[in-house]
Prior knowledge:
Layout: H1 3-33, H2 39-47, H3 58-66, H4 70-75, E1 92-95, H5 97-104, H6 109-119, E2 126-129, H7 138-146, E3 154-158, E4 165-166, E5 179-183, E6 185-186, E7 201-205, H8 211-220, E8 226-230, E9 235-241, E10 247-252, E11 254-260, E12 267-272, H9 282-290, E13 298-302, E14 328-334, H10 339-350, E15 357-362, H11 369-376, E16 389-395, H12 399-411, E17 417-422, E18 441-444, E19 448-451
Parallel strand pairs: 1-2, 2-3, 3-5, 4-6, 5-7, 7-8, 8-10, 9-11, 10-12, 12-13, 13-14, 14-15, 15-16, 16-17
Antiparallel strand pairs: 18-19
Amino acid sequence: MSPWFYVLNGLLFLTFFLKVFYILSRSKFSQERGHSCIVYEEMDDLASGVDTITILPHTIIENILSRLPLREMVRTSLLSREWKHRWLTCPELVFDVGFDQMFLKGRELNPIIHHVLRHHRGPLLRFTVQVPSLRSCPEIDEWLHLLPNHTLQVLFLRVSIGGEHRLTTHLFTFRHLRNLRLESCTFDPPLGFEGFNKLVTLQLQNVGLMPDRFGDFLASCSAIQTLILFHCTSFNCLEITGPRLKLLEFNGIFSSISFKNCPLLRDVRLAFSLEFNVENGFLSSLAESLSCLPALEELELQANALEGLSRYGAAPDKLAVTLKSLENLHLTNMYFEKIAEIASAISFIRSCPILQKLRITGYTYEAVDSVAGFLRSQVPLKCLAGLKSIKMQLFCGNDSEMEFLKYMLSSAAALEEIAITPHPGGDVKPHCIEHLEHQSWIWDTGKMLTRIQDS
């Protein structure tokens, strides 16, 4: 049972005793002054339950109710007569996995949600449905029609079974939405839609979009600060417009990306589906788009996107553009078995003049002699004067990874920290870093490589 249920019970008992103390104190004070006090009447009221709960501020009651799982929120109707219908005014309704495990147990979900929404009173701020058994059905649209579109601020809908659910256009009447999260739905704003002008967070996963119109939709939602797109419709050109956008996270497929009016965008995370094919010029186009972001400080990029820059290892020294504001770079799924990927990664790193933190997540098991030899032939980078931290994750300790690490160390004179997280299926030994010991680096607990500071 949720601890908030016990908190609520505790508050009710505390309220009862405070009421008793108040009555007795008032009686003693009246007797000392020689006045009469109708103590017995107040004690009768107390025994009958009058005003023992209602002295709690309504906002506190709603805050407590909103933190209870739905099943326990309904059980508060047993606390007193005053509380019999209090749960129906709760501003947040959450039908989640916990609700499914504790309450459903084979019961039909649709009539329960329909019944709760029909009897709900007062403003509703949050509505969440993410139970594993939710199947695409007409009742979902009926729920949306029962929701108050003049108060709802948070909507989370996950359809688990039956493919993408085509949402009713009534969704686009919720003009007060601040947080919208949809999974396995079709999202198609009607023509003439003027946007959610209060929407701050938009998260879409496995959602069917209209690629030609999605850019216009984003432009109409000028308050968005966080945009997350996971495995949605593929884009030829993904257009991102957001004067207040600060975080973009994308996992899917696009041929190109453009940013328009994104002066605050500081964190970009890009990953790609298995079907994604890197074309020549993709990285150059991507870097050019990223270079137009004046506030970009953090970039997470799936390393296979780098391959288009160099198919045979003949990557340029650096890109045609520089990422002047980028401080933190995370390259994920780095194949240390491919010269093209390593060469392109080095070119990309060279194009980040104020880089301070570099994180590499590996995705390789075997060493390739040609990759190690390529890295040994490289001239140390002169542009990493500000690099202070290197983190290697899923590190196997093969020759390719070791040569890359040594190459980075030889280029980063101001380095303060290096951390290595071994691959759980690898066999990283302390002797893998023998070549680093002469630079005052030691192996610590098999997980962390830390520099010994000079005295």
